Amino acid sequence: MPAAELIELWRGNLQEGVHRGHAVIHDGRDIMAAWGDPDAIIFPRSSCKMVQALPMMESGAADAAGLGPEQLALACASHNGSVQHVEKVGAWLSGLGLGEHDLRCGCHKPWDKAEATRLTCSHHAPNQLHNNCSGKHAGFLTWTQHAGVGPEYVEIDHPLQQAIRQATAEVAGEEPAGVGIDGCSAPNFAGSISGLARSMAAFANPANDARGRGMGRLVDAMRAHPELVAGEGRACTELMRAMGGRVAVKTGAEAVYIAIIPEKKLGVALKIEDGGTRASEAAIAALLVHLGMLDEAHPIVGKLLRDPMKNWRGIEVGGLRLAPGFPGHSRVA
Amino acid sequence: MPAAELIELWRGNLQEGVHRGHAVIHDGRDIMAAWGDPDAIIFPRSSCKMVQALPMMESGAADAAGLGPEQLALACASHNGSVQHVEKVGAWLSGLGLGEHDLRCGCHKPWDKAEATRLTCSHHAPNQLHNNCSGKHAGFLTWTQHAGVGPEYVEIDHPLQQAIRQATAEVAGEEPAGVGIDGCSAPNFAGSISGLARSMAAFANPANDARGRGMGRLVDAMRAHPELVAGEGRACTELMRAMGGRVAVKTGAEAVYIAIIPEKKLGVALKIEDGGTRASEAAIAALLVHLGMLDEAHPIVGKLLRDPMKNWRGIEVGGLRLAPGFPGHSRVA
Questions:
Q1: Is A183 within 8 Å of B104 when comparing Cβ atoms?
Q2: Which of A5, A156, A287, B92 is the most exposed place for a label (fewest CB within 10 A)?
Q3: PANTHER family, from UniProt (chains A, B) (predicted)?
Q4: What domains are there in chain B, each with its CATH number?
């Protein structure tokens, strides 16, 4: 099946653009609803960080290191690299007897404006703690230390990545369709959008075993610390706050978004084929409204989908709309 | 006809995404080649600034104000707001006896990194001269002063915008399909992608009349001053330099790109439906290689299309590819 038109861009009374993609709502056994092609193969990118954290939970490494909800939320985060993110990940590494130099995520300018401005205006370069994935990598190092294996934890044949591959396949109910290298150098296993949604349904309704308990703790940590999962002004943080912690959501590069809805035992996954983040954020907001988890009158729904787009002089010039047939079209558009 | 797949994004050995759109090569009479739907209605956005400058040329306003090639290039520019752009547009306004406060484009942070850093670290706000459209608006004011009409030149019923509407329809050979308000508050007339390509063919092969002479001077100015049309590091500037000034190219917001090729008497227009600039830049590079105007071995073709995409640690993770059927697929991909 082809990708479905999900989000339109309008200017004045004419459509200026469109974003196509795939979306699936899964209950862990069956596809409840789908748009586009549920069999489409995608890279989940950072939307699957909670899956990548499972070996750390199941192995007892997290407990051995005494990790609390803040560290577990950071392990699932694509954070802004604000002072609090950097300090908390740095303290986590120190507690392991490790440091920033043990990370393998590389450096990029933090997304947090205050920290980025501080670095720029003081002529300082960012370090690996600023990388949005530094918490995930601290989790990787927590497992690596506990397992007593080598430090090159992002190599595809490293025991950690093989454990992540196995967990990925088991929660998705399918073998990975392939592997790529992510921006942070960690392997990223490709799979179907329905497999990703099925994985998120497993997190929404975890079994009472070591893996299931680990899943539940990761989801609870994300819902308890939305500011650590992303950062001020970011869609993940604002959406989780808007839903009062009832739902865990996570974005991934190239316009992937997932939602974990424990009270409905549902998982949601979507991918915009062109990588347009404005569309993935608008689409996840629409799906959460559609599922009754997000108040369509909440300001975040306006910010991500419904508010008019304004130009440099504050004049309304257009905005995003739900494509016909996409859920909530009649209610939210 | 639907949009055609033009540019693919690959990660490892799997396709991660795709950008669809429309592209037309026009000789002024007929469509020479097309991908997607040549009748698709688009907003040209900033890609049509040379059309918006025609009233200033035809009316004699440009000559009355003594404008040279630098000002004409700036009138067609989406510039970086670097010091030289700001100073040259400021001097132009001063020569008219006007100032920054007469502009109606609004303010945004300049794209030029040095100037943006200077403003941020000195706690200064950008002014309207930093707006990428300030040169176009200086051209608007040049016409307005010459015509002795009111200062609210971006209102849709202002004589300038009506003159632009007429010029737009005449060079495109079609009535505008509608109008929207651009980021800089100027009206932007929607039309077919083939009409935009036809307009650019007219600039490539201008008639020997007041309009045609104006067209030729604008194209010559763009080709002579690529650094003023965009700025250091920008695709428009680097592409025009790479082609030795033989071709004028111009980008527009939401992934529009045009090319004016005088020596072939051809116009090119393309639009990526999702607004992805990485795809519009890769697609125009591919078309220019396909047309024999750009050396496929030039570094700019690598930068925009062929070079591997590297992550934060410099590891090659994937890259862009031409979709099957898009020109130069076999040669450039």
A1: no
A2: A156
A3: L-ASPARAGINASE, PUTATIVE (AFU_ORTHOLOGUE AFUA_3G11890)-RELATED
A4: 28-272 (3.40.710)
